[in-house]
Amino acid sequence: MSQLHPNLDIDQANQDLQGKSPEEIVAWALTQAKNPIITTNFRPYESAILHLVASLRPDITVLWVDSGYNTDATYQFANKVIRDLNLNVITYIPKQTAAYRDATMNGIPGIDNPQHDEFTDQVKLEPFRRALDELKPDVWFNAIRKDQTEFRQGLDVLSLSKDGVLKVAPLFEKTDADLDVYLEEHNLPNEFDYFDPTKVEESRECGLHTQL
């Protein structure tokens, strides 16, 4: 039970949402929200979740934690999506610069390097914790999907963060093929030239959904 959602039976809610469309899931979640946010990293297929949620809540706060290591294509993609969808984006960045990490960590530590956890905390987890503390959302829309990692196969559409924020994944059951159809139907762009320095391998968790 969450202090932010004292009357929510999350197991029952997950059962009730089985088989519902992404639009129905978003609409239901917005009834639970006083201060919702959606998080994005502008990775492939992100325009789908952003369009989906913003269509129902145009003024929603869009949280972008920019690690500073995105590709040129990702930044161009982000600018286009923000402009086309008229998104209300708030950007958080690490407290340390990439130049600082280049000097103290010799660039991006490999996943077997003991410094990789500190690197991940600096560029992703700390800015996210800071953002959640300052923005104080009660509902957090995200784009995680069941088929992305082994860990996510054990999750559900709804879950609670460690601080009791209701995390909502409207596209949880969708595949890349499903989202290809959504992008085409809504004339939305996509971009595959994407790099996450905290994951390196596509099937790894960066800690965002395991620690927050």
Automatic annotation (TrEMBL):
Q: In which pathway does it act?
A: Sulfur metabolism; hydrogen sulfide biosynthesis; sulfite from sulfate
Pfam families for the chain: PAPS_reduct
Membrane listed as a keyword: no
| Superkingdom | Bacteria
The beginning of the lineage is: Bacteria, Pseudomonadati, Pseudomonadota, Gammaproteobacteria, Moraxellales
Query: Cross-referenced SUPFAM superfamilies, in alphabetical order?
Result: Adenine nucleotide alpha hydrolases-like
Please give the GO cellular component terms listed in this UniProt entry.
cytoplasm
| Entry annotated with the keyword Oxidoreductase | yes
Protein name (record): Phosphoadenosine phosphosulfate reductase
Q: Keywords in UniProt for this one?
A: Oxidoreductase
Where do the Phosphoadenosine phosphosulphate reductase domain residues begin and end?
Answer: 39-189
| GO biological process: one example | sulfate assimilation, phosphoadenylyl sulfate reduction by phosphoadenylyl-sulfate reductase (thioredoxin)
Instruction: Give the family this protein belongs to, as stated in its UniProt record.
Output: Belongs to the PAPS reductase family. CysH subfamily.
